[in-house]
Inverse folding.
């Protein structure tokens, strides 16, 4: 590898960075701002563990049996308690249908912006059924609102997760039983083009729709969660007689909240796939694809102050950190920054610092901004004590 600049130049670069106040220390995970969180229902507060006798404070009970909604200590997603919902085909009708749900009160203001984060675990007995069921729904207001089906609902149907958004079904892939699935819904409740629906499944954004989100009325829709299976009331075909699921880590936020305020707390360890890698510069023998091939024996190398490796995950995801392995990483440190972007054009700095200089293995850094919705990561090299070459053997984003 050719070294085209003298060591004196490199030392001058480092000195100028320090003079400019460029941080060289490792980043720390930012704490979430809880100001916009209106309600946390993770069942850890004893005052909330009122099941099955009653719904938690300020919520409404909609089940008629001793097993309809109960508190359990296993499985849990957040802490040591969760809620268990069970609905049987033989259960009494509640609020004109077969359901075991907990409901908000119908008191949401008009044109509200709301965040809803929660986690669902379908019991291993949740077998494929010819009939669908709702497991979370947003119900139109009760008085002065159009009737009919809820404008937004999360269902299981035909062995798959689906969203019913104003009568349009959005397929979100097959469900797996016995595992927690994290959901975040962000809705701006509007009847015109300014409405917004965003949905994240296990940290990956899977829905982004603009336009009307409900059909009108003096208030915005309110939230209900649990099991609602209308076919058991109408006599439509169904091949099951029982449904059991678990619900945990519920957080409700207003317009001040962001994704990380309501998302079920997940360690920053998920490694989403990388669709492709590019770079601002590279030598032909060491192209950017070498940094995502899973081999520490190959590398991307690019020369110059600010040389950058760009990772494309293929879709917007909740990213919270990265792992980076450096060529000769056990012999020299590297100063670098990481920027994130949704569109590959506008980038936000999420981390800056220095590698340890003690290992060639991947090193983990967590974004100082906390998690954010992004598709691209740009890893930019600024200095090392040997030359002006960036050489990364492996790099991966980390998500929630």
């Amino acid at each position: 590898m050719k070294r085209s600049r003298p060591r004196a130049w490199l030392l001058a670069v480092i000195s100028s960075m320090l003079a400019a106040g460029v941080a060289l220390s490792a980043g720390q995970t930012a704490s979430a701002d809880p100001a916009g969180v209106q309600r946390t229902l993770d069942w850890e507060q004893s005052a909330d563990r009122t099941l099955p006798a009653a719904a938690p404070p300020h919520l409404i009970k909609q089940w008629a049996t001793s097993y309809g909604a109960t508190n359990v200590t296993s499985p849990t997603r957040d802490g040591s308690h969760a809620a268990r919902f069970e609905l049987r085909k033989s259960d009494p009708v509640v609020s004109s249908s077969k359901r075991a749900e907990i409901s908000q009160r119908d008191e949401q203001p008009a044109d509200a912006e709301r965040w809803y984060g929660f986690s669902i675990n379908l019991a291993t007995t949740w077998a494929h059924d010819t009939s669908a069921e709702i497991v979370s729904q947003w119900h139109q207001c009760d008085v002065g609102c159009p009737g009919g089906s809820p404008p937004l609902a999360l269902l299981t149907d035909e062995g798959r997760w689906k969203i019913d958004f104003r009568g349009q079904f959005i397929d979100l892939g097959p469900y797996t039983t016995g595992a927690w699935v994290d959901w975040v819904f962000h809705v701006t409740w509007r009847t015109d083009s300014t409405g917004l629906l965003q949905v994240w499944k296990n940290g990956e954004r899977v829905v982004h729709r603009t336009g009307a989100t409900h059909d009108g009325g003096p208030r915005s829709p309110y939230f209900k969660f649990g099991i609602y299976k209308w076919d058991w009331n109408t006599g439509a075909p169904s091949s099951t007689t029982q449904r059991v699921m678990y619900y945990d880590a519920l957080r409700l936020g207003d317009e001040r909240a962001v994704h990380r305020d309501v998302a079920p707390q997940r360690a920053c360890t998920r490694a989403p796939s990388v669709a492709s890698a590019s770079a601002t510069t590279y030598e032909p023998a060491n192209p950017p694809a070498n940094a995502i091939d899973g081999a520490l024996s190959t590398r991307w190398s690019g020369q110059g102050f600010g040389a950058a490796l760009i990772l494309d995950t293929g879709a917007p995801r909740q990213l919270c950190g990265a792992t980076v392995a450096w060529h000769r990483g056990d012999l020299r440190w590297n100063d670098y920054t990481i920027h994130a972007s949704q569109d590959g054009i506008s980038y936000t700095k999420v981390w800056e610092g220095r590698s340890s200089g003690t290992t060639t293995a991947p090193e983990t850094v967590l974004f100082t901004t906390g998690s954010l919705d992004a598709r691209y990561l740009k890893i930019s090299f600024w200095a090392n004590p040997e030359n002006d070459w960036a050489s990364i053997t492996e790099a991966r984003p980390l998500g929630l």
Summary: The CA atoms of residues 71 and 83 lie 5 Å apart. The two ends are 38 Å apart (CA to CA). The longest strand covers residues 308-326. Residues 7-19 form the longest helix (13 residues).
